[in-house]
Design a protein that fits this description.
By secondary structure, the protein is of the alpha/beta class. It has 2 domains: about 5-240, P-loop containing nucleotide triphosphate hydrolases (Rossmann fold, 3-Layer(aba) Sandwich), CATH 3.40.50.300; about 260-475, Rossmann fold (3-Layer(aba) Sandwich). The protein has 16 helices and 22 strands. Strands 15, 17, 18, 19, 20, 21 and 22 form a 7-stranded mixed β-sheet that branches. Helix 4 packs across helix 5, helix 12 crosses helix 13 (about 380-395) and helix 15 packs across helix 16.
């Protein structure tokens, strides 16, 4: 059988950096194929080449045996390749329907056929949201949706393209709750059943085992291993990605928490949260679990002062820093170099670029960021951008850290490094709140965990008394 997608010795360099150094892979019709690798391994560059966002320097690509060298994303879509990037490209001022059909509106003589447009949008939304009650509809403004729902709009946009033969999903579950992940997996299986080849990029190895049949591992721009997922364990995959065995994060022993730094009482926002009370002490990590839309992000934003508060009280006696889940829209100035992003929150009275570069370089080294301080932040992989956002909080020297999805989009080794860093910061006296869709991370990292449900924050429990499964059951209960 002819492969649906063939990539043969693809090469791409940016100056002296070889982002792709002869990558090869093949995906059959109806196959779900995992692309694995650490941040900076070449995955994003490969996706950009497939999607027509950049031209390779060498090698070849083929779709159903025919040469494939798209000069633009539109040409790639016209040839049947749709890419859903981890970094969303939503137009926030447009509706969901306008985002789904953007650039592909059905028209006759320059007039958009609205009936055909609505039908295409409804089909795409039915695929990603199912037939039950929907959290959003075609006429909702995309910018008002959560990050998770915006990700579903991106997937709907890819599915609205007629004639899709290859679907590339780049970290599609990074902002999704488990119920949405299961719906996405059902959709991926259905698409594979129609003969669509799916390239699935993910750092979640358990999800790869659940949905993918074969895999290719990239390291330093080259494909270093491929085969059937069932023929290897997670430690083998991590070893192939990093050249070393997997590091498993275990919560470190820390001194007992001391004085209360933050006290939140009956806090209610304009829409969410509805009722939230908690205390945060110096030297502890408190987790907040909950489904997408439960109000977790809104709670952090209200505590930090970004969103209006309708009632309740927040008492804070120290400085705070916030890591937004939307690193592209709020967390980083992507057009600025790394060092300016790191130092932006604490510049001092006199700006000294040489000092900024020196201080940023120390944090780049500490967080193992694959970049130079003067490199433009937009050129970094998503995981390295996340580390830059964390470096900014460290440079800010805030006593309280509010972290919304701190390991979103980072590889297995970097995730262990970040969780270890949180242990280190708590041991040094920082007080930390972590919102995460990865419940196992909350159990392995936090001292206490709250469950947020429909805008109401439940009482905290020691992690010794909970499991990831129990947290999910509580968050999902009526």
């Amino acid at each position: 059988m002819t492969a649906r997608l063939e990539v043969e010795r693809l090469e791409k360099a940016f100056g002296a950096t070889r982002a792709l150094a002869g990558v090869s892979l093949a995906v059959a019709p109806g196959e779900v194929h995992a692309v694995l690798g650490e941040n900076g391994a070449g995955k994003s560059t490969l996706m950009a080449a497939l999607g027509g966002a950049l031209r390779p320097d060498g090698g070849a690509m083929r779709i159903d045996g025919e040469a494939f060298a798209p000069r633009s994303p539109r040409e790639a879509r016209d040839r049947g390749v749709s890419v859903v990037h981890q970094e969303l490209s939503i137009c926030p001022h447009l509706t969901v329907a306008e985002n789904v059909m953007l650039g592909r509106e059905p028209a006759s003589f320059g007039v958009v056929r609205r009936r055909d447009e609505r039908a295409a949008v409804e089909r795409a939304l039915a695929d990603v949201l199912g037939d039950g009650p929907r959290r959003f509809g075609p006429s909702d403004r995309a910018g008002a949706l959560s990050m998770a729902d915006q990700q579903l709009v991106e997937i709907a946009r890819a599915l609205a393209t007629a004639g899709t033969r290859v679907l590339v999903l780049d970290e599609p579950t990074s902002s999704l709750a488990r119920a949405d992940v299961e719906r996405l997996f059902a959709l991926v299986r259905a698409l594979a059943g129609r003969g669509i080849a799916v390239l699935y990029v993910s750092h979640f190895l358990d999800e790869v085992r659940e949905i993918c049949g074969r895999y290719t591992v990239l390291r330093d721009g080259a494909d270093v291993r491929s085969g059937a997922v069932a023929d290897c364990d997670n430690a083998d995959l991590v070893a192939a990605m990093s050249g070393a065995r997997a590091e498993v994060h275990e919560r470190a022993r820390r001194p007992p928490p001391t004085e209360v730094l933050v006290r939140v009482e009956s806090l209610a926002g304009a829409r969410l949260p509805k009722d939230a009370s908690f205390e945060l002490r110096r030297g502890e990590i408190v987790g907040i679990a909950g489904l997408v839309g439960s109000g977790r992000t809104e709670l952090l934003r209200a505590v930090f002062g970004l969103d209006p508060v309708r009632s309740g009280r927040v008492q804070v006696s120290v400085s705070m820093g916030l890591l937004s889940e939307d690193r592209k829209g709020e967390g980083l100035a992507l057009g600025l170099p790394v060092y300016q992003n790191v130092t932006l929150a604490r510049l001092g009275r006199v700006v000294r670029p040489s000092r900024e570069v020196r201080e940023a370089a120390a944090l780049v080294e500490r967080l193992a960021i694959k970049a130079t301080p003067t490199q433009t932040t937009s050129a970094l992989s998503g995981g390295n951008q996340q580390k830059v956002a964390l470096a900014r909080l460290l440079h800010q020297r805030a006593d309280v850290l509010l972290l919304d999805e701190p390991t979103r989009g980072v590889d297995v080794a970097s995730k262990a490094e970040i969780l270890g860093l949180l242990d280190e910061l708590a041991a040094s006296g920082k007080a930390i709140v972590v919102v995460s869709s990865q419940l196992e991370e909350l159990v392995s990292t936090c001292d206490r965990v709250h469950v947020m449900k429909r805008g109401v924050l439940g009482a905290a429990r020691p992690v010794a008394e909970v499991t990831a499964r129990a947290l999910l059951e509580e968050a999902s209960s009526a």
